[in-house]
Amino acid sequence: MTPQVTPKVPTQEPAAPAPAAPVEKPTEIPAAEPLVGTSCRRVDGPEKVTGLAMYGADLFPHAADLFAKVLRSEHAHADILAIDKTEALKVPGVLGIYTHADVAGTNLHGLIRRDHPALAHQRVRYRGDALAVVVAENERAAVAARDRIEVEYKVRPVVATMEQALAPDAPRLYPEGNVMGDKRIRRGDVDKAIADAHAVVTDIFNTQTVDHAFLDVEAGTGIWDGQMLTLNAPGQWVHEERRLIALALGVEVEQIRIIQPATGGAFGGREDISIQIYLGLAALKHPGKTIGLRYDRAESMRCRHKRHALKIEYTLAADAAGTLTAARIVVHSDEGAYASTGIAVMRKAASHATGPYRVPNVAVDVYGVHTNNNPTGAMRGFGACQMAIAYEGMMDRLAKALDMDRLLLRQRNLIVPGDAVTTGQRIENATARECLQQAIAKFNAQPYAGNEGLPPHLRRGWGMSAICFGLGYGDGFPDCSRARVELNADGGATVYTGGVEVGQGLLNTVMQIAGEELGLPFEKMHVVAADTELTDESGSSSATRQTYFTGNAVRIAASELREQILDIAGKRLRVHPHEVTLQQGWAFETADASNRISLARLHDEGLARGYSLKASALFKPRTIGEVRGTGQSPRAFITYLFGAHVSQVLVDIETGEIRVERHIAAHDVGKAINPQSVEGQIVGGVAQGLGMALMEEVVYRDGRILNAGFTDYIVPTIKDLPPVEAIIVEHDDAGGPFGAHGVGEPPLIGAVPAILAAIQDATGCAVHTLPVTPERMWQLLQVKSGKPMPLPMPMPT
Amino acid sequence: MPPALAPLPDNVPRVRIACTINGESIVREAPVDCTLLTFLRDIVGLTGSKGACLEGECGSCTVLIDGTPVTSCLMLAAQADGRALTTIEGLADGNALDVLQDKFIETGAAQCGYCTPGLIMAARAVMQSNPRITEAELITALEGNICRCTGYASIIEAVRRAYRTLTP
Predict the structure, then answer these.
(1) Which domains occur in chain B, in start order?
(2) Whole-number Å distance between alpha carbons of A621 and A632
C-alpha cells in the first residue's frame, strides 16, 4: 500500500534541545510566564519558512501514483445531451473516465442545501460545473484525454445578471424560478417613522463579486485501500466534508478519513467542497493507488464560489437632532448557480443591515437571485461586509443632509451596553463607541494636513467606520466544538482539535490556551489538528468562531485535566489540591515550593493511581432561531464583536488613482490570546478590505469570467498598503476563553467603508459601485464636474 | 536530493539538464516545455518553491539563479542548465535557520506560509545585492510578491530586522 502522509505533530524549533530527564531537587522552578496574552512564536513557523511544510500541492508529486483532471462545462447554461469518451479513452496512459453515471451516491453536495451536482447530469448551470473526471498514469495524459472528451450541449440562454434573472420572461435556472429565497426583518412602524422624519436619505450600493485569491490552489491526494478512503485535501471543516463526501459518493462516513495538509489561506474559499469528491471518486475506482489532483489558478477561479455581489437599496431617516428613527432596506443578492452558503449570507446581511446603530423602526427584505454566474458563498465577513458599506455610506450621507459632524452623528446613534441591534438582541458588550473613540484619538495624534501644500491635481480626505459582527453560525444553527487534551509522559501536553489551521494561527491559540490552564511552557505543548481519525469535530474555521468555540472546548478540557493533575499532586505532596500551584511544568505546594513534583513524574504517578490523564470537552452554547418574517431573536448570535476604522486617502483627480495613506483599525477582541496573531488578522483584513474597496472584481460576460488569473484579477501588493495602525481593544467577554472572542472577519468589514468615506471626503463624490478603480473614480469626477466623458466600457450606475 | 517523482509520458521530447541546486550537482531529464518550477517541484522533488498564479504575478515561485531572483514559473527548466540555483530548501544550515527565516517567524510574517518561500528568496537576493537599503528600495524589491494574509507589515518588519543583523 502506498504510504500515507502521517498526520504530524508540528515540530518545535529545530534548534530546541531534546527534553532533559526531569531533575526534581536542585533546579529552581522557573518564574511563571503566562501564555495567554503572549506572542509565542508560531508552532508551524519553522516548517513554513524552510519550505518543508507539506501543502496539498506538495503531496501531489511526492505521493501520487495516478493523476486526475476534471472536465468543466464550456457553457454557462446548457442541457447535456451526450458525453462521448471514445476518443479520450484512446489517449495512451488513460485508465478511466468517470461521469455522473459512475457515482454511487447522491452525486450532490452543498453546505446548506444539497443542490450542487458533483458531476453534472443533464444540465449545467455555470461554467465551473464539472462533467467528468479523468484518471491517467501521468498528468499530461489526463489533460490530453480531458480535452478529447466530446460533450454535446443544447445551449440555453444565459442569465448573466440579477436584472435578467428577475425579468418576467427570464429563462429559469430551476423549475420554481430564479429567486432562491428571502429573509426579512420587521421592527416597529417604518412607514410612519419615515413620514415623520426630519431628514430622509436614500441611495443604492452595488458591491462586486470578489474572489478569495488564496495562494494555495486546490490540490491534494486520495487513496482507497478497500476499507478506508483517505483524503489529504485542504478544506475548512474536515468533519463536514467527510459527511458530504459520504453522501455524494455513497460511502459510509466511517470509511472516510480526511487529513488537512498545510493550507495556504482560505478566507471562506474552502468552505464548499472542491477537489475532495473527485479525488474520492477516482480513488474508489482505482483501489490501492494514490490519486493526485491539482487545479491551476484559472480552474480554481472558474469553479470556486465567490463573494456575493449585492445590490442594496437603502433609506435612512432621522429626527432633527440626528437620532436615527428608521431604515428601509431592500437587498438583492447574486447567488449564482447553486445555493452554497447563500441562505446564511442572506441572513447575515439582514441581521447586520443597520450595523451597530440603534434604529427603532427597521424593514429589511433580502432576496437571493440565481444567475448563471459562479455560486456565491462564504468569504470573510459574508453579508455583514457588504451591509457595512451601505450603512456607513448612509451615515455619511445623512450627516451631510443634516449638516452634522460625521463623528457626532455616529456617537449619537451607536448602541451602548443594553441596546438592541436590528434582530432585537440586546448587547451587553457593545464597545463600538470605544473602538471609534480610540481610532479617532490615534488619527488625531498626528497632524492632518488636508489639502494644504498639495499640488492641484491631488486631494486628501479621511473617513471613518464603525461596525459590528455576530460571531458563529447563529440563528439556532447547531454550532459546537470538541477538544481533547492529554498529559504526555514527558510532562508536556497535547491538544487534539478537529479545527483547521488555514494560516490564521489556530494551532498557537489552542496550545496557548491549554498551556495557560496547565501551567506549562509553550515548548511543552503539542497539537494534533484536523484529522477525522485522530480528532473530534470542532466545526468550521469560519464565522470568526474558532477562538471562541474551539478555544472554549480546549479550555474546558484542559481545565478538567488540570483538576486531575491537582488531585494527583495533592495526594503525592500530601496537601489539599487547592494548595497546589502549577507552574512551568511543576506542581508544588503553594506555601512551600520545595515540596514539588514535575509533571513528567506526576504523569507516572497518575497512571499508577488510575487516572486517565486526558480530558475531553464539548462546547455547545445555544443560539435562538430568528422568527420567520420579523427576523427577531433574543440571541441570534452567541456574542457580538465591534470595531472602528479611520482611513486617509490621497486621490489624483486627473488620473483617478487612489492611495491609502494611513489606516487605523481598532477592534475589541475580548482578549488577545496571541497579540501578534491578532494584529496579523487586523492588518491582513485591512489589506483585503483595501483590495475590495479599490481593485478586486471578478468580471463576468455572459457567465464567463474574463479575469480568471492574477494578471487581470488584481490584489493588493506591498506597494498598495499604507502602514496599518492596529489597536487591540480588550473587554473581557464573559463567555469566551480567558475573555477572548475573535477577530478574523471584522477587520475586512471595517476597512472598506472607511476607505470609501475617505474618498468621498477627498473628492465630494459619493461611491455607489465597487471597486473604486481609477477608471471608476475618474468617471465619478467627470460626472461631478458636469462634463462627463464616455468610457470605453459601460459602467454600472 | 529526492529521486525523480512524477512520471513522464514516453512521447514527450526531453532535455537533459545539469545544474547545481543548493550546492549539490544534479542531472535530470525533463520535458522540453517544462518550466523551472515544475522541474524543481515535480522532477527534482523540491516542493518548497510554490506555484500560485503560474503567470509571473505572485512571486511564490521565486528562486535565485546565480544569485538573481527569478519567477521560476516563467522560465524553462532548460534555461537553468549549467547554472547555480538556490531554493528555499538551501537556506537553513541543518536545524539552524537562516536569519530571514528566523525573523519571518519572529514577526509573524508567515501566516498561511504559501508566499513565504518566495518572499524570503526575494529578500535574500536584495540583501545580497543591496546591503544598505532604503525603505522605498526594500518595498520595491518585494513588490513582485503577493501575500494574501498579512497585509505585508510583518514581512517588511522581518526583512528590516534581518538587515539589522547585517550592519550592527
Answers:
(1) 14-90 (3.10.20.30), 99-166 (1.10.150.120)
(2) 19
